[in-house]
Amino acid sequence: MKIGIISETYGRPTPPVGYGGIAATIHDISEELVRRGHEVVLFATEGSWTSGRLVLIPGGDVPLRQKVVPEYVLFLAANYINGFDVWIDGSHHKRFARYCMEHYPEENVLCPAWNPNSEDSPCNTVVQSPHMVDKQLLNKPDNTPFFFAAIPLWEYEPSYGPGDGGVSINVLSEYKGTDLLVASAARHGFPLKLYGPISSDSWYKASGVQDKVERYSNIRYMGECGPERIDILRNATASFTLSVWPEPGSRVSLESFACGCPVIALECGCFPYYIESGVNGVLCKSRDPDTIYEAYLEVESAGRRMREAARKTAEEKFNLGVYVDNWENLFQRMIRGERWA
Fold this sequence. Notes:
Shape: globular
Structural class: alpha/beta
Oligomer: single chain
Strand order of the largest sheet: 3-2-1-4-5-6
Number of domains: 2
CATH superfamily of the largest domain: Glycogen Phosphorylase B
CATH architecture of the largest domain: 3-Layer(aba) Sandwich
């Protein structure tokens, strides 16, 4: 089968060097499809690589509210539109999929939903957590496919040691809950390391995060991390993903489980569907710094039991082979003419 896959278009390579869960997931899907013998063409920005065929596309994306058609969409339409059995539009805003709806409705285009925003997934949506059905799909058709995201588990060696403190591997921003986490560490003094890009210098300063990083020796900002994040997670006591928006899949959390690192998260978005509080991590019912600290203490005291449960969760729910089986089933549905949402 000939498959065209469009990756993240905001300038990050596929796979990403540092932060970039979308590009990492698209890379995993692409590599497994190539391994299974499919003819895969990956459309991605400069610096990307694939075991299939790589076509570089212009970087930059444009949300729907901006009426201009992104340059990469025009490039694909002019050069590649009729050459594939099926497409996966893995870009951020799915502008290629929307362009096909208007100009090439016969094309088989699948849209993995990265954002809890129906505008960003216009057709044939693939949701990664049950809560996303309500967020993404206005009509909620019965044939909408749902399956958890996955990662190549063989790349993640678990560790069941005691850990050396909490980590957060996320963009530093309000919607990722960085300010809540830092406030808790500052109040209670537990060790915390922050990895990831800063969403904006103005927010970083105004939120008080910068001040606390500079004042408290137990809180350290380490910058972005790439492949070394696996060792970081293996050696951490707990992984924090305190998103205050309905997270669709949370790549960092999946990787944390695979490394045997329990996850502490707010009780929202995808997290209640695979975090069993007190077993493989802790769900915080409030954003209070004291509650966050209590969750950290619970993980610390659980030790190896919770770490083993985290890895078991990854093995049961986030298997890349099962994930790509599901994608192949969707390809067949599309080729038979099925459409949804």
